[in-house]
Amino acid sequence: MRGLFIALSAGVAALFLASLLTGPAGLPMPESLRALLAGGNEPLPVVMREIRLPRAILGLAVGAGLGLTGAALQGYLRNPLAEPGLIGISGMAALGAVLAIQTGLSLAAPLALPLAALAGAAIGVGLLVALAGPRGGSVTLILAGVAISALAGAGTALVLNLSPNPYAANEIVFWLMGSLADRSMLHVWLALPPMLLGAVLTLSTRRALDALTLGEAAAQAMGVSAPALRWRLVAGTALIVGPATAVAGAIGFVGLVIPHVLRPWVGARPSALLPASALGGAALLLAADVAVRLVVPDRDLKLGVLTAIVGAPLFLHLIWKTRSGGRV
Amino acid sequence: MVLRLSGLSVTRRRRPVLHGVTLSLPAGQFVGLIGPNGAGKSSLMEAALGLIPFTGTSSLATLPADRRARHAAYLPQAREIAWPVSVEDLVALGRIPWPGGGRSGLDRIAIDAAIARMGLEPFRKRTALRLSGGEQNRALIARALAQDTPMLIADEPIAGLDPAQQLACLRLFRDLAAEGRTVLASIHDLGLAARFCTRLVLLSDGHVLADGTAEAVLRDDLLRRAFGITVRRVDTPDGPAILPV
């Protein structure tokens, strides 16, 4: 297992470096890294520090966050099909962003769009808490999440439907596909602190998620407080997924596929799967973000499209393997 | 350790299912909880553990959750193993309430002892979900043993097991009580309960109908009142065989 963590960490480090070194301006490697470290006002340090670095950091953080929350929700719901979007926060964040584009607010200030998305995510959390109630179980949480997702989806469709001109609709559709292009350090400072707090909260559920392997009653009898666990998971997921959607758009499949792929490698223990999935998610998203810049450099291939193209067949393969293994 | 329940009442979905049950279960007893389906056996155990809302007092439920988990291990009726973990990792889950969390030397000793006691050595590295129902049950009991508590509360531990596994499970529980633990288990097989338990508690409609030795509790009138059945008794060298008719 230690080998897996070393390999994943090395992969993340290599892909982070690759992300820093990939871009339309074909910059030489040693100079790029020197410029990144030294800084200055010349074009090279500016490109490295203000274009490539935020993109790489966000790729790492968003990927890690999606992998981590996917693994945590799967552990909590004891369902390998759970994913970060399940509780409706990403849908509400997307709705907030879409409204910002529609109303022209996104053009007013550079951070208006992510802030609107965060507001959407916060409203989503409020709705989730109100719907799931203080004593609700995991099923109530899923149902509330599905209802909020449906509501957010309907709202997004309505905004698209009523969009005043095709350009606004176009912009909304492209934003929804997810991307890390043209993000600044402002985006990093906006997203990173809540995501780190969310990661701390989510990682603190590891032992409780292990205990849940035996079911809710057995876990409770082993000292796990069900309301406290749910609170930490909802807050942790919202603090990660809200900002992640705000700065990167809707990126699917990472939180679903990564825990699936890594589960056999950690002996299926949720406590080990959480950090492994964070590393795996970061690696996948960094790789995908490098790929969108390399595959069709002249066309703006969206990150969410690529993760879906890679993720869906991978998921089909896993279903096939599970079926042929005789399990459901 | 003594488990004291006093005036324990439980209401589920606005329906009262347990009415002021008062019991004292001292260490060294294997108490069999018998009674028809819906008599309140599971509710009694869950309330005693503080897992569901109740009125009255339970000496266990008043403890903080983490200390309670070091006093009593619980085997719920639903034998759930959500992920394909190895038998060893499954048993190690029993150490979650303890400071080492499964990694300390003390944890290793408890895990190894539980695996050895349940005869799971050959399955140690196997995936628990791939084992037979009886083997999975043994692994889950080993998990409870690894929790290393003075009290064990088991909800229908022998349901769904073959006769040999049933005997092995009840012998183990009897031995655990003889070692000084308090063991409370709900059991539907009256004959096995009579043979292995040191004391029986008969629940009916949320009330304790009888409490004492097998002879005192498994009386014709009480069984007729609780289950609506009569029984035939055959005395064997191993204890009474009880056949509902």
Provide a brief overview of the structure.
The complex is a heterodimer of chains A (328) and B (245). In chain A, 76% of the residues lie in helices and 0% in strands. Chain A has helices at residues 2-21, 29-38, 43-77, 89-102, 105-108, 112-132, 138-161, 166-176, 185-203, 206-212, 216-221, 226-248, 254-262, 270-294, 303-324.
> Cα distance, first to last residue of chain A?
26 Å
Distance between the termini of chain B: 39 Å
**Count of distinct strands of chain A:** 0
Tell me the major beta sheet of chain A.
Answer: none
Return the CATH architecture of chain A.
Answer: Orthogonal Bundle
Would you state the CATH class of the largest domain in chain B? Alpha Beta
Number of domains of chain B: 2
- pLDDT under 50 segments of chain A (min length 5)? none
Structural class of chain A: mainly alpha
Integer-rounded radius of gyration of chain B: 18 Å
**Largest beta-sheet details of chain B:** 6 strands, mixed
Domain module count of chain A: 1
Give the low-pLDDT segments of chain B.
none
CATH homologous superfamily of chain A? ABC transporter involved in vitamin B12 uptake, BtuC
CATH topology category name of the largest domain in chain B:
Rossmann fold
The proportion of strand residues of chain A reads: under 5%
Q: How would you describe what is shown here?
A:
- The complex is a heterodimer of chains A (328) and B (245).
- By secondary structure, chain A is an all-alpha fold.
- Chain A contains 15 helices and no strands.
- Chain A has one domain (2-324): ABC transporter involved in vitamin B12 uptake, BtuC (Orthogonal Bundle).
- Chain A is globular, with a radius of gyration of 20 Å.
- Chain B folds into 2 domains: 1-77 and 156-245, P-loop containing nucleotide triphosphate hydrolases (Rossmann fold); 81-154, no CATH class.
- Chain B has a 6-stranded mixed sheet, with helices on both faces.
- The A-B interface holds A 78, 207, 210-215, 217-218, 220-225, 263-264, 267-270 and B 46, 49, 51, 65-66, 68-69, 72-76, 78, 80-86, 89-90, 93-94, 96-97, 101, 140, 143, 147.
- Chain A: InterPro entries: ABC_BtuC-like, ABC_transptr_permease_BtuC.
- Chain A: The chain crosses the membrane at residues 56-73, 85-105, 111-132, 139-164, 184-203, 233-258, 278-296, 303-320.
- Chain A: This is FecCD family ABC transporter permease.
- Chain A: It is a multi-pass membrane protein.
